[in-house]
């Protein structure tokens, strides 16, 4: 059997709006929109606002239910898209978060077994450098067969500053991510995989942790920057670059994109790309240095109105009813792109983007097969965006007197201490939010208070 020459992958980014996804509808959206691309060898999910701030900052078991839905959805989509008469199952290699931003790596079993090592890293760019905004990344070494080149792949999920007028702040977020996101080895992933290979009957749980927690996080022996001359790099998320530098006026929505507008009409979405901040800033060398983007041929992905989300909810309910009648949801038919119904207080923009590094060496450039948006989900005002691509299984040169690309910004001295301080703040805020904003937390708080009052009353009675 001929050995594969390319690794086929799918990078999907989605702002979850702190709400659990509708698993069946998300799976159907993947299966319907990407049917010709499924099933890839590797799937990477970049997730922003993955859960409420209490669950995101505390992480672990608080966050797991939100992440688990995505692994279920991916496998449902893969099961609905049969390849050579059989469905494909994906194994979760890694799930890691930095505050409210998360990254999940899923691979076909034969691909997962050829991953030699995994590194993670992350940094916050929000208030006090906490993870309400920021980035989390995963880097892996993949060797498809004995004696073949090791291919290094880097994936980063990011969430930059919001609002039309904050373009410069987003540029600063990119700079901060390069200065503070440092990759370190995660031995738990390979240790667990080695155990599974030795004992196939042993159930292996995927790693789920904060990317930079002290103690349980990665041990950094060598500083590994985001941009590396030896790694293919993909950077995607809610980058929040807009098509206007100011907030919209009350009547601006009358001229915004319409789905049925012809390409020659000024209300065709393509005309809004002329004022896209990300393209402008990248061409001027002020952000996303060294990275390229495939042509955009889909409407803006943000901000959809409540009416648009209601259309998506009706479509999701119709899908659920159809699945119930058939006794199965494996057909996954039903998702449709909603009308272009925009929220009037935000200019329609391509906030959700995926960019990549393009090496100059012959036979190493990624090939983009599809760059598209998925149908609006009933739980968010963002559309998911997906990049389907393939990477040649040819390693990049590891020893170069002059690397062909270098990090645009140097690593900040003492980045570890800054991140550790931010993590302590995240835990404090997470605990406070859990106690104040969730019914479980409030029940725990008031129960504790009543127990203390009761114990004090009992003690006073005994003393009396």
UniProtKB/TrEMBL annotation:
Record field: transmembrane: 443-463
Residue ranges of every copy of the Inositol polyphosphate-related phosphatase domain listed in the record: 5-397
Pfam families assigned to the protein according to its UniProt record, in alphabetical order: Exo_endo_phos2
Keyword tags: Membrane, Transmembrane, Transmembrane helix
Ranges where the record places region Disordered: 245-266
InterPro entries xrefs: Endo/exonu/phosph_ase_sf, IP5, IPPc
Name under which the protein is recorded: Inositol polyphosphate-related phosphatase domain-containing protein
Residue ranges, compositional bias (Basic and acidic residues): 245-262
